[in-house]
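Marked as duplicate of an earlier ticket. Keeping the data here for the record.
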Amino acid sequence: MPEQRTIDADDDGIRLDRWFKRHYPHVTHVLLEKLLRKGEVRLDGKRAKAADRILAGQSMRLPPQVVHAKDMRPEKPVAETKHPLATKDMGSLADRILYMDKQVIVIDKPPGLATQGGSGLTKHVDGMLDSLQYEKPTRPKLVHRLDRDTSGVLLIARTAQAASGLSASLALRDTSKVYWALTRGVPKQKHGVVKGALAKEGTRGKDERMAMTEEGEEGAKFSLTEYAVMGIAGTEFAWVAARPITGRTHQIRVHLASLGTPIVGDFKYGGTDSRGRGDIADKLHLHARSIDIGRPDGGRLQATASLPPHMVKSWKLLGFDPDDRRDPFPPKKAKKR
């Protein structure tokens, strides 16, 4: 007998064929097209096409060929189900959760873990998201990314609707992301803005590099970062908070280096000038400290991540407070007319 299934809010707006891939992965594309042509699959009682966008609350008629079809996919070997992040240094993704609700998960990404896969990478956040699916029918999705050696706040959407909404907030710049960095040298201005065009140099992967260039050049994109000096240690080191207004690759790293104050441990843009000193490690000292973003269901989502161990050590050595809660970028007061 045919069955009726109501479309969940998590599936609102996706293509019909994508819905089948999510919920009935054993139904092949060829079989689905055949059932659609014969009118066996119906949406709110009407014939449907594979490319149709479905809406939450609609009723999907499922014929017996779908309901009783057997999943012929081979079982995954046990070795593939082991969590790839179960290491002494990083723990599991579940252990890194800062916040979770029905729509979104916020994790504190450790340094050294890539956000997405690439040449030679076997461990990355995107490849581990199955472990955060929990009761949801669909796999979580990355909303943005962090460089491999940058730690801190990383957003993960639990539904397609949340992914679309959060991506829109990022695109519309309805987001404030604050990074903490330790720079070698102190910026001349305590508060300033770095802007200019950025273009890619070199190939993707370890050799990928961004450079400041002239606007209008091929591949150049405008970039803007606001920064504030939170603390200094003589003339050698500065604790800098940075807020990227645009979201270009390596933006904060390039912009701080352009001031003559590269981030400690950033040898790509600072060379030997970015080396630490004494017990300050030669690891990248850049951390996504906090995020404030418009939620797809209204309101705001705010999250903060503590510094990773190597940065906590550096902060204490230099007399900085790793738990400082000051707002380096308070809202600007409206000018009186």
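See parent ticket for discussion. The domain at 175-317 is CATH 3.30.2350.10 (Pseudouridine synthase).
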